[in-house]
Specification:
Elements (H helix, E strand, L loop, with lengths): L1 E9 L9 E8 L5 E5 H10 L3 E4 L6 E6 L7 E6 L2 E3 L9
Parallel strand pairs: 1-4
Antiparallel strand pairs: 1-2, 2-3, 4-5, 5-6, 6-7
């Protein structure tokens, strides 16, 4: 299954990737809209071969996971060989 992340929720503090707590997403197979925690999506991408994206068509970028040493894994977009900030540009919910 593949999903498009459409919105993010951030905890208080600096608005950066580490503070994303939840994501609202749309299934690319059936169009259903759901919400999942960051931990759930990290696990799904890492262990269940889940595919997540931000944007669509030629503007679509992959969502990957970052595992900082001594820190909590988080989500971040990856395009053209570079980590990008597309998730932080999404609307909040």
């Amino acid at each position: 299954m593949a999903i498009e992340i459409t919105h993010v929720r951030l905890s208080s503090g600096t608005p950066d990737h580490e503070h994303i707590t939840d994501c609202k997403w749309k299934s690319l197979s059936d169009g259903s809209v759901k919400t999942s925690s960051k931990a759930t999506l990290v696990d799904w991408i890492d262990n269940e071969n889940g595919k997540a994206y931000v944007g669509s068509g030629s503007q679509r970028v992959n969502v990957g996971t970052v595992h900082p040493q001594g820190g909590t894994p988080y989500l971040r977009t990856y395009a053209d060989g570079e980590w990008t900030n597309n998730l932080l540009a999404l609307p909040r919910f």
